[in-house]
Amino acid sequence: MDLVILIGRILFALVFVGGAVGHFSNASGMSAYTESMGLRPGRLFVLGSGLWTLIAGIMIILGVWMDLAALMLAIFLVLAAVLIHRFWSVPDADAKMNEQVHFNKNLSLAGGALILFGFVVSAGDGLGYSLTGPLFG
Q1: Membrane spanning segments where (predicted)?
Q2: 57, burial (CB in 10 Å: exposed 0-12, middle 13-18, buried 19+)
Q3: What confidence tier does 13 reach under pLDDT thresholds 50, 70, 90?
């Protein structure tokens, strides 16, 4: 079962590692969008959140304080949903639907991150294929 959990961790975390790469490779475009949502300076938010999610994703893949990493991702996802994907304030129907999809995706992934947090804390040091045990617990 440890191998299945490791594969699941890697698949879950790759979304965030890939997203972080996108934050860095498309920082100017994402910064402009971030600023259009009222967050300034946009570049600081984009690069900071990219670094935040990259670190958390790598921590989950390697099994280093996965509980902390899961909380980091949950915080990022809820904040991104509420601050960036504000579908309720978008007048265009297509854009509104797109933002609502991203909002719901972020909340769903935040739920998954919280499940991972609870799982890691409950498993304690008994979680296989990890470099450290949980930080909390």
Answers
A1: 6-24, 44-62, 68-88, 109-131
A2: buried
A3: very high
Domain coverage including residue 8: 1-123
- The model carries a pTM of 0.95
The alpha-helical segments, DSSP class H, found in the chain are 2-25, 27-36, 42-62, 66-83, 93-123
What pLDDT is stored for residue 137 in this prediction?
Answer: 78
- Residue 9 CA to residue 66 CA, distance in Å, equals 9
Confirm whether 129 is domain-assigned. Answer: no
Structural domain total, the chain: 1
- Other beta carbons less than 10 A from residue 1's beta carbon: 6
Residues near 120 by Cβ (< 8 Å), separated by ≥ 6?
A: 66, 67, 70, 127, 134
pLDDT average, residue stretch 69-81? 98
DSSP annotation of 88: G
Task: Establish if 74 belongs to a structural domain.
Answer: yes
Q: Summarize pLDDT for 25-41 with one digit per residue, the tens.
A: 999 999 999 999 999 99
DSSP, res 131: S
Query: Domain for residue 35, yes or no?
Result: yes
Q: Check whether 9 has a pLDDT greater than 90.
A: yes
